[in-house]
Amino acid sequence: MRTVFFGTPEPAIASLEALVEIADVAGVVTRPDAARGRSKQLNPSPVAEAAVRLSLPIFKPSHGSDILGIMSGLGPLDVGVVVAFGMILTSEVLALPRAGLVNVHFSLLPRWRGAAPVERAILAGDDVTGVSIMSMDAGLDTGPVIATSSVSIDLDQSAGDLTARLASDGAALLSEILLAWTDGEIEPVDQDDFAATYAHKLTTAESRLDLAQPAEQVLRRIRAFDPRPGAHVYLGDDRFKIRDGAIESGPSLAPGELHFDGDRLWVGTGTDALVLRSVQPPGRSQMDGAAWARGRSQDLGTLS
Predict the structure, then answer these.
(1) pLDDT the model gives residue 295
(2) What is the pTM of this model?
(3) How many helical (H) and strand (E) elements, i.e. helices and strands, does the chain have?
C-alpha cells in the first residue's frame, strides 16, 4: 500500500507513525516553516520534524496550487491520509490516489465539522466525542464516514488532554481500517447534513471568562481554551490566564472575588467558588495558583 501523508501539528504525528508501520509512505506534505515562540524564528512544523526522524521525504508547499504537482511527482498512490493539514485540497488532488484521500477528524461526524471540534465539544458540554475517518470530498468535513471510535468527555480533561487521547485513538483506528478501505472492503456511510454543527476556529476574544456564569460553565471554558489560547480574565489592567481549576466545596465568594486559605486559591463565580489550580500571571510562566497567592505582597485583588 503506497500512500502520502498530509499533516502539520503535533496531534497528527501519531497517525503518521502508525502509517509508517502499515504502508510505504512516499512523502509527507506539511505547512511551511513558521515563526513559533517568543524568538519568532522560523521553525519546521511538528510533522516535518517527525518526518525527518522517520527519514521520509518532506514537501512544504507555500500555496495549495503547488500540491497537485507534488502529488503527480510521487508516482502511483493507493491512498492519501490527511490529519489537520491546514490547507484546502482541490478535487484534482483528491482524485489522484486510487482510493482517494481519507481524513482523520477529531469528532463524531457530522457533529463538529471544522477547525476546532475538540474545543467546541467541551464548550458545548458534550458527554461524548470521538474520531471519524472519512473519505474526503470537496466540502468541509462532509465526506462519507468510513469508521468511528468514541470516547467519553471528562470534566477534568483539557482540550489538550482530549486531543492527545483522540490523536492516539485516531492512529489506532487508521491502522485498523486503512488496508480494508483501499481493498474496497468497507462501504462508507453518508453524513446527515441536517445534523451537522460547525466548529468555528477559536479566537482570543472569546477566551475571556465571564465569572458571573455558573462554575461549571466557567470550568468548561478553562478546559476548552487550554493550552491555546488560554482562558483569561483581568487583574486590574493586566491579562491573567487561568490554566486549570476545579469545583470543590469552599467559601462563598462574589464573582471574581479571590480568597486564599493558605492551601488553595479560590475565585467566586455565579454559583460555586472554583479552586484555581494553575494560573499564568502577566509576563510569567504557568504556575501553581496557591504559589502565586503566597507570593503576593499585597491584597490579592479581584478578577474581572
Answers:
(1) 87
(2) 0.95
(3) 8, 17
